[in-house]
User: Fold ABC transporter substrate-binding protein PnrA-like domain-containing protein from Clostridium celatum DSM 1785.
Amino acid sequence: MYDSGVKAIFTAAAGVNIGVITEAKTRVVNGEEVWVIGVDSDQYDDGIYEGNKSVVLTSAIKKIDEAAYQIIEDEINGQFPGGQVLRFDAKNDAVGIPSENPNLSDDTIAKVNEVINAIKADEIEVKTEL
Assistant:
């Protein structure tokens, strides 16, 4: 994909990203400007190639800890809705980006937060069906 001019790759599985990150590091060290978007957890450290520079632009994080906390809290409070499909998404803070994003500008982070807040306020609808 990088050979065809793609500047950033966002894979769908964290383990798969390691190969993409390795390739991106090689290309950046050789003078190209390419990026990787991490997935599932903050993969910034996986992309470090020189000092604290990383080829990981940001990561799309699944906050499993937040989902587990919400489920446990609901169970403790007698509010766990057993037998129902539960959705964990931006509305309940179960997905997002890392709290620190050295490769993103403050303006970009502000825009991401603006979009997340609009999702929470139902100003933007995220389809859950294909």
Q: What stands out?
A: The chain has a mean pLDDT of 93. Strands lie at 8-10, 35-40, 48-50, 53-54, 56-62, 95-96. The longest strand covers residues 56-62. The radius of gyration is 17 Å.
